[in-house]
């Protein structure tokens, strides 16, 4: 299991629901990296993650984790995976002490010492019931549990949603520490693209069940840009050169996917760097082409 | 599996404590009644009344206590698992569905053994207190109650695992339970009525039967019920554990199948 290149490899993953289809999703999460999985609500992020975690079964397609087929090595893979959800998945009557006693018999690599160290670091009480925890405390608890059994892959579904910037920052620092070990990898779905801009190595963008972009974050941010121009100049721009355009009273802002090429082609045009948020918004509106 | 057993045990500890508290109160009440029959007000009543009170107290102390304990000691946290999101989380754990369901079965089996032993001890004390013979079949009845409640819980569990919507599961369980309950009730009444007509020529619904009803009931219990039980015990005793084991296995595999089903 040690000689794999990608922590996750997904090929043509398809899942059909009434009114929604996860359509041939393919991407890789390289070993030792953190991948941000972005998309609007209902885009298919949770469906993809639930499939990877074995919570739902795909209709078509394959995926491998640590280079292994989950159908044949389900338990072996699950021992080295940690899942973090947007809501605490533990009973509210439990305490951290009881959770430690439960999970230490489930995960062979569980370390009570590590778990209690994280509790101390996050200032979480070990005897208090989870029902009395705040949202931030619950999330920290999940992360403490996820990092206490030597998992090589963290899969997080909207884990930082609803947290204040201070807590989010603290959690992001923990992830950076976790990634110091080059065998560890993270797949993190989030709406908060600013977090991913800070820590992600690569980004995959999904919309309406289809992957629109997947690659290294710096490459994506480097190639995309927002071209600002007047309405008259906008009329001169070829439609295939931009993803979509936001029109306003003064002119237009166009998302271009090849900044260098556009700079050459439309010399004198101002092309600002784009954020992941911008990319997401302009891509979501790609079919309308023009929006305001 | 040990971790899952611990989780189930931890989450159900309050209900267990409540069950034990009710059991202790019930036992104290029974002892109080016995003391009252010996030295208190009940002792001043007619001899037959005292005897009836003692008899009822004996059965409450033995079977009533057993029902209370069995009902509160078995655990079934499916609804809580679903509500808290643990069911989803559980599918990410390195544990097979067989072990997940098995953990609950094993914990309940341990409880069945522990409660049975406790009830046996109580029964022995009750027999000494009320001056009754210690019959082995009484011990078997206690164990039988335990096995019935065990079946009941795991049948409910299998339905819950197979129907994700709690409301649907509850409805199906209620329909099955009510059908069995009323079916058994009406069946028993029909059986008594047939017996009454055969023995006295009166139906239990006839006004003329009123005078002989208590005699018919005693005879029915001694001849019909005990006769059938004894016949079954002598000839087909192996059928009882066979049915129990088959049902347990059926509920177990149905629960595993339900848990294995993914969206």
The fold-level CATH name of the largest domain in chain A is Rossmann fold
The count of DSSP E runs of length 2 or more, i.e. the number of strands of chain B, is 0
Shape of chain B: globular
Q: Give the oligomeric state.
A: heterodimer
Number of domains of chain B: 1
> What is the string of helix and strand elements of chain A?
EEEHEHEHHHEHEHEEHEHEEHEHE
| pLDDT < 50 stretches of chain B | none
Distance between the termini of chain A: 50 Å
Q: How many structural domains of chain A?
A: 2
Helix content of chain B: over 70%
What average pLDDT do the residues of chain B reach? 86
Number of helices of chain B: 10
Short description:
By secondary structure, chain A is of the alpha/beta class. Chain A folds into 2 domains: 6-220, P-loop containing nucleotide triphosphate hydrolases (Rossmann fold, 3-Layer(aba) Sandwich); 224-291, no CATH class.
Could you describe the 3D structure shown?
The complex is a heterodimer of chains A (292) and B (263). Chain A is elongated, with a radius of gyration of 21 Å. Chain A is 32% helix and 27% strand. Chain A contains eleven helices and 14 strands. With 263 residues, chain B is an all-alpha fold. Chain B is built from ten helices and no strands. Chains A and B meet through helix 2 and helix 3 of A and helix 1, helix 4 and helix 5 of B.
């Amino acid at each position: 299991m040690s000689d794999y290149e990608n922590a996750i490899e997904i090929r043509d993953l398809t899942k059909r629901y009434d009114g929604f289809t996860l359509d041939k999703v393919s991407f890789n999460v390289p070993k030792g990296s953190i991948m941000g999985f972005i998309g609007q609500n209902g885009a298919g992020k949770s469906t993809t993650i639930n499939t990877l975690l074995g919570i739902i079964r795909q209709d078509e397609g394959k995926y491998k984790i640590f280079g292994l087929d989950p159908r044949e090595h389900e338990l072996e893979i699950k021992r080295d995976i940690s899942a973090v959800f947007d809501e605490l998945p533990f009973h509210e009557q439990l305490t951290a002490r009881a959770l430690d006693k439960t999970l230490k018999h489930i995960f062979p690599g569980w370390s009570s010492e590590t778990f209690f160290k994280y509790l101390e670091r996050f200032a979480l009480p070990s005897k208090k019931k989870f029902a009395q925890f705040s949202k931030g405390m619950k999330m920290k608890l999940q992360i403490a549990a996820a990092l206490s059994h030597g998992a090589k892959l963290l899969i997080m579904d909207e884990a930082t949603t609803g947290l204040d910037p201070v807590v989010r920052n603290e959690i992001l620092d923990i992830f950076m520490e976790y990634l110091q070990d080059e065998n560890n990898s993270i797949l993190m779905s989030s709406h908060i693209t600013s977090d991913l801009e800070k820590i992600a190595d690569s980004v995959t963008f999904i919309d309406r069940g289809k992957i629109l972009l997947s690659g290294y974050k710096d490459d994506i941010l480097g190639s995309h840009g927002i071209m600002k121009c007047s309405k008259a100049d906008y009329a001169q721009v070829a439609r295939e050169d931009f993803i979509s355009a936001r029109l306003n009273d003064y002119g237009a802002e166009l998302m271009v996917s090849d900044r260098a090429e556009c700079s050459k082609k439309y010399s004198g045009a101002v092309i600002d760097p784009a954020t992941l948020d911008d990319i997401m918004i302009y891509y979501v509106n790609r079919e309308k082409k023009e929006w305001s | 599996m040990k971790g899952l057993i611990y989780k189930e045990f931890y989450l159900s500890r309050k209900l267990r404590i409540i069950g034990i508290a009710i059991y202790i109160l019930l036992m104290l009440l029974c002892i109080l009644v016995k003391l009252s029959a010996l030295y208190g007000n009940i002792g001043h009543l007619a001899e037959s009344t005292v005897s009836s009170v003692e008899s009822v107290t004996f059965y409450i102390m033995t079977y009533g206590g057993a029902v209370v304990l069995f009902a509160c000691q078995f655990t079934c946290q499916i609804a809580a698992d679903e509500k808290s999101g643990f069911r989803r989380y559980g599918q990410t754990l390195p544990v097979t569905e067989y072990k997940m369901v098995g953990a609950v079965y094993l914990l309940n089996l341990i409880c069945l053994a522990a409660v049975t032993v406790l009830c046996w001890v109580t029964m022995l004390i009750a027999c000494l207190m009320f001056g009754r013979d210690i019959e082995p079949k009484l011990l078997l009845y206690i164990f039988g109650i335990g096995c019935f409640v065990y079946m009941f819980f795991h049948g409910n569990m299998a339905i819950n695992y197979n129907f994700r919507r709690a409301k649907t599961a509850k409805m199906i369980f209620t329909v099955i339970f009510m059908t069995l309950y009323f079916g058994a009730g009406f069946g028993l009444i029909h059986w008594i009525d047939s017996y009454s007509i055969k023995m006295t020529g009166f139906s239990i619904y006839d006004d003329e039967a009123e005078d002989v009803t208590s005699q018919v009931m005693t005879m029915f219990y001694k001849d019909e019920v005990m006769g059938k039980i004894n016949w079954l015990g002598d000839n087909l005793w192996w059928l009882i554990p066979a049915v129990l084991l088959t049902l347990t296995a059926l509920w177990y595999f149905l629960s595993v199948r339900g848990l294995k089903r993914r969206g």
